Amino acid sequence: xxxxxxxxxxxxxxxxxxxxxxxxxxxxxxxxxxxxxxxxxxxxxxxxxxxxxxxxxxxxxxxxxxxxxxxxxxxxxxxxxxxxxxxxxxxxxxxxxxxxxxxxxxxxxxxxxxxxxxxxxxxxxxxxxxxxxxxxxxxxxxxxxxxxxxxxxxxxxxxxxxxxxxxxxxxxxxxxxxxxxxxxxxxxxxxxxxxxxxxxxxxxxxxxxxxxxxxxxxxxxxxxxxxxxxxxxxxxxxxxxxxxxxxxxxxxxxxxxxxxxxxxxxxxxxxxxxxxxxxxxxxxxxxxxxxxxxxxxxxxxxxxxxxxxxxxxxxxxxxxxxxxxxxxxxxxxxxxxxxxxxxxxxxxxxxxxxxxxxxxxxxxxxxxxxxxxxxxxxxxxxxxxxxxxxxxxxxxxxxxxxxxxxxxxxxxxxxxxxxxxxxxxxxxxxxxxxxxxxxxxxxxxxxxxxxxxxxxxxxxxxxxxxxxxxxxxxxxxxx
Length: 479
Description:
It contains 13 helices and 21 strands. 30% of the residues lie in helices and 25% in strands. The protein has 479 residues and is of the alpha+beta class. Helix 2 (42-69) crosses helix 6 (123-143) and helix 2 packs across helix 7. Strands 1-2-3-8-9-10-11-19-20 form a nine-stranded mixed sheet. Strand 10 (286-288) and strand 11 (292-298) form a beta hairpin.
């Protein structure tokens, strides 16, 4: 008997039906602990995945569930910070909590989920997520918080059972990784100027243009600096056997919540897919089926656009579009905070939205977009309404050819921030950047850039558009 087979047989786990739902899955771990999960339906497959994933990584993902609930200040204090290794950002806990509390209070995710496919999740995706949550909670119930073997969260009050909305909040966090996710401090901390009236004798006019040093520092980090990845799809003309061949070499971190988790998932006769997923996502994001292999590299396109707003004198929460007043929309928020004495108290803040997106003040630590009595900046985020990516990856997990894969991409148009490289067993290879971006042509940027925008566009190829002109909104592409 081979060592690999022996290891597999010694690590066989049967998960029978739970009391909460009828899920059955088999988890077989081979050498190095890779889970091979077999089930008869998508809910049970998610159940097995959730159990195996929690068994391996519960402390890391539980920390992110605290984050997307907006509860970091409650458990870790308001002045501490956390890092998202996938985009190079570091967020203050309190700003982060207000950022996510706003998303949650506005029920942004619930509204996206309520849409019919392809904009909202397919029924099979919902089944898998429901099972994932049950599997995660089953593991936590089996071991108990005090029995978690990882000392990073053993016995921690912030580790608790999750609900389906927690899983979807994590999905949304990843969708925003290359857009609003680089401005969490700038959105969660944005407050109107006080006083709101320009003092007598103060110099009015345009906001300060970013300095070369600020732009140079951002150039190293945007769109997702240092997270590039490599991949090669090779067609039949370049292989010995006439079949396709693919090398995936993703450059995401080896630790933290943005690393990949490897698994093999099978529903006999329906799905047989193996590869890596970002933490908390129960579908394969980079991997292969029987007939198709695919990978991704980070696209150099921007997923967001700053809009510069001209404010009404004396009212820093009212802006002008084509000379017409537009009030910003306030959202009143409360965050629970652990004090130095260990007590819990409430902090309140109002965050503001516009027709272009939320008001923000900085990107990746650079305060390039000040909110003054005269101007403010809004974050236009093309991925803010993108839950299509869940359907894209689910359908990719079923695809068997490059042509099927292309149809999946066209049908969903949901890839949030990566290029696609693929090859199949028939010998076809594929490359595309068909992903979610703002529709801003070079001509549109040239026409609509402000003074700040001319600086950001020259240095970063990132326009900053004139929100005072209705003609400077994003365009639309009929395709």
